[in-house]
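Researcher: Here's a chain I'd like modeled. Treat it as a single chain, no partners, no ligands.
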Amino acid sequence: MSTLKDILYRVSIDAVKGSTDVDINAIDFDSRKITENDVFVAIRGTLSNGHDFIEKAINQGAIAVVCDTFPEIIVTGITYVRVKDTNAALAFMADNYYDNPSRNLKLVGITGTNGKTTVASLLYQLFKKAGYKVGLISTVRILVDEVEYKATHTTPDTLTINRYLKAMNEVGVEFCFMEVSSHGIHQKRTEGLHFAGGVFTNLSHDHLDYHDTFAEYRDVKKAFFDHLDKSAFALSNVDDKNGLVMLQNSAAKKVTYALKSYADYKAQILENQLSGLLLKINDNEVWVRLIGTFNAYNLLAIYGTAVELGLESFEVLRLLSELESVSGRFQFIVSNQKITAVVDYAHTPDALENVLKTIADIRTKNEQLITVVGCGGDRDKTKRPLMAGIAAALSDKVIITSDNPRSEDPEAIIADMEKGIEPQFYKKTVSITDRKQAIKTACQLAEANDIILIAGKGHETYQEIQGVRYDFDDMQIVKEFLEQLNK
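Model: Modeled as a single isolated chain. Structure tokens:
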């Protein structure tokens, strides 16, 4: 049993009404989950304000309330704690409540626009192969050593993070790799956590529906590295123009990686084929099963992280050669008719361009490249025309379709995308609202040796339309249509 005073350690408190020397059961920011003797933390969210639910939380048994403004009605026997920032307070309280679990393992945060899931997931895979107990907190899944849980956000809320880290402590996990999103940093979900290291992959156009400007998006990412302490390492991709910016004010040990620039960890692509990459990493050659320049960067980040965490460099190279691609990240199948279908999560202009250029590097130009692409609803609208424009410029045929329309009209999203297609590319572009029909059409258009890229959803096994999630798996659907063609 914790006391309120114990879990308020390191929280910046403005004022208190009542006693903090009370036993508390649990903490929550969702008033619906509050039970007897819990602490309710009132968070100001994008859709609702927790301060509106203080009375409800007390009626359900809350013994204490943490808020940024005292309510008009103060209930006798309830402790009220006023703080400057309830998000930050919740993060420190969660850390204290779960006995500071991030300090009992080596936690590494991976941030950037693209590559977070691949880097985190492959680090998990590599350290498992090296014989360690490992944790993973990612967009795709959460792993407490070998026990899997479903992920709902790139960076979960701070209570969830600490709960899983505590579970990792209990089974002896030594290393945990965690995706850190700009939303997560901005909403203080990573405050209070002790990171052994941070990795910056790259920065490009994304989340401008949430962040007002690109500069704000960059600075939020940078804040993660600003908070690392001197016992940690900060590993940054300096081929990205923002790579050195991330390191500017960090107290952590600064290390760099690059394919083009001078860096501590350097790689060169010697061969790039559909079967894999031959890389030269710090003067040693290694063959890996992943393909494309973007994966060369991911693998270099993984190599640098593993070495910084104490693994022997030649052992890391051996383990790199055994890694297998992450679900929905350049996953491909080849049909009996020799049609190659690639499924990739690329949902930003930069990621889509990377995938299309990777395919361009390995194709012969004697085949067609048919791209199926859509953009999500209720998200950054400014990237829609950019993505369609990139697809049209770098493909032989393009089918614009739905992604996860969410609450938006899918045809309105497609209309936004169509604005980015230059007139000379009109003839090779078609719009089909139904994503399944779009994939079917791509398969019907394809001939022997052609390549189909299905971009945007990757590992997702659903399509969200008007608040309902329907079963939908790009890889499963393209397999079925290609098998029908085989018959």
